User: Fold this.
Amino acid sequence: MNSSFPLIFLILAAVVVVFGFGVVVQARRKKPTPVMKPAPVVEVVVEKKRSFKNVLAGAVSSVLGRGEINDTSWDDLEEALLRADVGVKVAQALLEPLRARVKAKEISTPAELITALQNDMSSRLVGTNRELNFDTTIDGPNIWLMVGVNGAGKTTSLGKISAQQVALGRKVLMAAGDTFRAAAGEQLQTWAERSGAEIIRGAEGSDPSSVIFDAVQAANARKFDLVLADTAGRLQNNTNLMEELRKVRRVAEKGAGTVTETLLVIDATTGQNGLSQARLFADATQVTGVVLTKLDGSSKGGIVFAIETELGIPVKLVGLGETMEDLVAFNPTEFVEALCSTT
Ligand SMILES: Nc1nc2c(ncn2[C@@H]2O[C@H](COP(=O)(O)OP(=O)(O)O)[C@@H](O)[C@H]2O)c(=O)[nH]1
Ligand SMILES: [Mg+2]
Assistant:
C-alpha cells in the first residue's frame, strides 16, 4: 500500500501533464499566430525585379547601330512601338515631338534620340499614384472588387493580392462572387488556404451580389479589414454583365463596407483587343486601377501606355507568372528600361 502510493501519484501526475500539454497544443492550433508580420511580401516581391520582355530592343539596337538618324530610324521605332502595342495614338504622340526636336537640331545623334524616347516614355508614366487604396478611417471593411473578362486572371490575381495583404497584417475575407461555375469557387478556396485568408462561398448559380453582401456582413461582424471579391467574366443568365457588376457594387456597399478599389484585370497578351473590352468595364464600374496580367512572355507590354492614355486608369499591379509571388507593384522606370534594354 505504502509503496504503491507514490506510483499512483506519479501516474496521475503524468496524466495531468500529458492532458495539460494536449490542451495547450489544441489552443495553439485554434488560435493562429497574430497577423502582424514584420516583412511584407510586397517588398520581397518587388525586390525580385523580374524583367519584362525587352520588346523594343531590336529597334533600339538598329537605330543605335547607324551613324545618323534617318528615315529608317523612324520607321524602325514606329514599327516596334506598334508591335509592342502602345497603340497608334501613343506612338505618334511619342514620335512627333522627337521628329521636331531632331529637326530643330536639339537632338542630333541616335544615342540622344533613344535617351529622349526613353525619357518621354517614362515621363508619361511617372508621377501617377499607383498605391492600392486602403482606407483606415472607415468603420466597416474595405472592399476590393476584381472585374474583367473570363480568363484574364481575376481569381489568380485576387489570390496573390490576398497573400500580400495578409503579409501586411490585414485580416482578409474572400467573397466567391464568381458563381458561374462551381470550379471557380474551388479555385478561390485553394487561394484562400494558400494565402491565409478566409472565404465565403455561395451555391453554383447563386446571386453574386448576395454572396458578396454576405461576405461583407461577416467581415464586419468578425472585424476583418478587407473583403476581396471575385466576380465572373460571364453570367449564367442573359443579364447584362455590366449591369450585374453595377449591382454587385451597389449591394456590396449596402451594409457596413466601402468599395475602395475596383481592379480591372487585363490580360496583356490580348493587346488592343483587350483594351476595347476594358473600356466597357471602365465605363460601367468606376475602375480605380488595372492589374495587367501575363506580362511574362507577352510581347505586348506597350499596352500599358495605351491603357493609361486611353482609359486614364493607373496600372497598379503587374502579373508575371502563375504562382503566389508573381505579382509586383508596377514600377514605370524599371518597366521602360526593361522594354528598351538591349542587353
Ligand atoms: N503566365 C501567367 N499566367 C497567368 C497570370 N495570371 C493568371 N494566369 C493564368 O491565367 C489563367 C486564367 O486565370 P484566372 O485567374 O482563372 O482568370 P479569371 O477567369 O479572370 O478568374 C490561369 O491558368 C492562370 O494561372 C500571369 O500573370 N502570368
Ligand atoms: Mg475566375
